[in-house]
Amino acid sequence: MYQAIIKELINRVQSLATVHSLLSDAEWAPLALDKLAEQIIHSALHALTLYQNVAVKISPSPVQVTPAQAHYLAMVLNELTTNAIKHGFSKTTGLPQIMVNIRLVAGLKQNIIEFEFRDNGPGYPEEILQGRQEALSVGFDLIRNIIRRSLRGSLSLYNDQGQSPLFNLNL
Predict the structure, then answer these.
(1) Predicted TM-score of the model (pTM)
(2) Residue 75 pLDDT
(3) In this structure, what CATH number is given to the domain that contains residue 162?
C-alpha cells in the first residue's frame, strides 16, 4: 500500500518537473495548451511503464496558458491520465486510447477554454457521475478542487464511449 502511495506521489512530482522544464525552456512565457497536454500525458504514460502502448490524439489548438495555469493543469492532466490507466484501460479490449479536444469559446465577459479528456475505457461508475463524495478517490478529489478553486473553472463528467471529463476555464 505504501509503495502505491509513493509511486503516485512520484508521478505527481514528475508531472510538475515536466511543466517546470517546459516553462523554463519558454522563459516562463505562456505555453501552448495542446503541447503542454501532450508532454504531461506522455510523461505520465512513461512513468507507468505497463502502458506505453497507448494511442494519444490531441487536437491542435492556439490556446495559451499562463505559467500558473500550466502548473495546475499539469497536475490535473497527470491525475486524469493515471485514472484512465488505473480504472479504464484494465477493462478495455483493443488498443487503449486517450483523446484531448481543446476549444476556445467566446463568452459574454471573457473567453472560456473547453478542455475535454476522453479515453476508450468503460466509463465512470454511476456514483462518480452523481458526485457522491464517498465514491471519490484522492486523485479525483484533487482534480475537482484544482479545477474549481485554483483554475476557477467548472468540471462536468459524462460517459460517452469511455470516460469523458470536460472542464471549462475562464480566461
Answers:
(1) 0.85
(2) 92
(3) 3.30.565.10
